[in-house]
UniProtKB/TrEMBL annotation:
SUPFAM superfamilies, per database record: beta-lactamase/transpeptidase-like
A Pfam family that the UniProt record links to this protein: Glutaminase
EC number(s) per entry: 3.5.1.2
Name this protein carries in UniProt: Glutaminase
Recorded superkingdom: Bacteria
HAMAP family: Glutaminase
NCBIfam families according to UniProt: Gln_ase
Length: 308
């Protein structure tokens, strides 16, 4: 709207302004990252892919880029699987922990140091326990996770992505064996691992992920998937453990609970206001989307989103 001051434009137009600025900063930062080769089927994803979506608790939405294209949400699924489990068992925290670690998300040594209890639900040992318990409660952890994400655009588990990770995996199998050895899994490894890989292989658009996560931002209870106390705890653990070893950096630069995945997705939550999700495949040295973090940093700065 030429000639109109930003503060006078409708909410949606203002969000679009912020998204345009965030996109240009995110695209620049993405050039410094590298697309992960950990899951062979994802190694060829174009590094220039970019999408960003915002959803607010008052119902406003805005998107930019390939916002309805599905991407592999990978570890972002750990957040939705956790929330699906907490609906069945609000005390599941006791089995998966809630404290941070700087040991990396696939550390067997850290699991052993912590007497075989995972540090939190976002490291792989914790996520495997979440998948195991969700499988017990629902009979299908993948479907229970997908169900939380279904908000319009297609959401499905990509069998080719799951199969390609499973075919080369040793690390998650090792973690699952250690968990099983110490009685931390209620189902057999042969059931838990395929469910875990299929859960990581969930494909969804940034618009879907931002919409689906709104219950984590909504304090009115209108989107209530979980009670307010559980939502507060999930956001706290996201802030301290959702971004691999970069929690301090993300708190300092952005100040929002957030979760990322090696597919290049990042989701951030502003309690009381809304959610923002970016997909930009190249990752930085911490394993977070380089473009995603930069784009959310710019968006949060412009929108005044920070929990601090
Ligand atoms: N499927 C990947 C794994 O289990 C997900 C890693 C991630 O996105 O952090 O290692």
């Amino acid at each position: 709207m030429p000639g109109t001051r930003l503060s006078e434009t409708p909410a949606c137009e203002r969000l679009h302004e912020y998204l345009r600025a965030a996109q240009s900063r995110g695209r620049r930062a993405a050039r410094r990252g590298t697309v992960s080769r950990q899951v062979p089927a994802l190694a060829g994803i174009p590094a220039t892919s970019f999408a960003m979506a915002v959803a607010t608790v008052d119902g406003t939405e805005a998107q930019i880029g390939e916002s309805t294209t599905g991407f592999s949400i990978q570890s972002i699924s750990k957040l939705f699987a956790l929330c699906a489990l907490l609906r069945h068992d609000p005390r599941a925290w006791a089995d998966v922990g809630w404290g941070p670690t700087d040991a990396g998300y696939g550390s067997v040594a850290d699991l052993e140091r912590n007497h075989w209890r995972p540090r939190n639900p976002f490291v792989n040992s914790g996520a495997l326990v979440v998948t195991d318990r969700l499988l017990t409660h629902t009979g299908d952890a993948v479907e229970a996770t997908v169900e939380l994400l279904r908000t319009g655009d297609a959401v499905y588990s990509d069998a080719a992505v799951a199969g390609s990770e499973m075919a080369i995996d040793h690390r998650n199998s090792a973690i699952a064996h250690v968990l099983a050895e110490h009685g931390r899994l209620t189902n057999g490894i042969d059931r838990v691992l395929p469910q875990y890989f299929a859960q990581c292989a969930i494909t969804a658009s940034v618009r879907t992920v931002a919409r689906a996560a709104l219950f984590l931002a909504d304090r009115s209870g209108d989107h209530s998937v979980l009670d307010a106390e559980t939502v507060r705890r999930v956001n706290a653990v996201l802030l301290t453990s959702g971004m691999y070893g970069a929690a301090g950096d993300i708190a300092y630069r952005i100040g929002l609970p957030a979760k990322s995945g090696i597919g290049g997705g990042v989701l951030a939550v502003m309690p009381g206001r809304g959610t923002v999700c970016v997909w930009s495949p190249p990752l930085d040295g911490d394993g977070n989307s380089a473009g995603g973090v930069a784009a959310i940093e710019e968006f949060a700065r412009l929108a005044g989103w920070s929990v601090f």
